[in-house]
Task: structure prediction
Amino acid sequence: MIGIKLFLNYTTFMMDENTWFQQPSTRPTSVVVVVQSHQSLLIIQRLCEPNIGKWMLPECNVSSYETLKRAAARVVQETAGIIVVRPQLIALFDNPQRNIQRSIAIAFSMKPISTPDSAAPNLHGSKQFAPKWCRICELPMEQMAHDHAKIINSYLAMLRR
Result:
């Protein structure tokens, strides 16, 4: 007999008599940030799992105590050491298959306070991320993690409007 029960924000599915599968009843919210300076975008290479070797835009979950815009600024500063300003909404991405967390992503574009030439030496990576500036025409779109190529295309379409 297959069963379903709700418990503390989790939905638990009984797959068979001995196997239960738990899934959060609510989906986490994340922000994804497109940072452009001149003709370059800030991209981050993953140096650990998941998605090791893949490129991505700065992305993080939103903490319960911060606004979306503050989370967007925070993730850029934490992953690349860049202070950004002027957040502009790109779009909402809510496909449950977009990543392993099934997060809902709100994408923003933001501008760095410095230019790529002066920001490049200040890009600080970590054991998890290797940030770099990449010219828009040279972006590794096929190697982007999750739905980040789609987010970049939405951003570029927004610029053309």
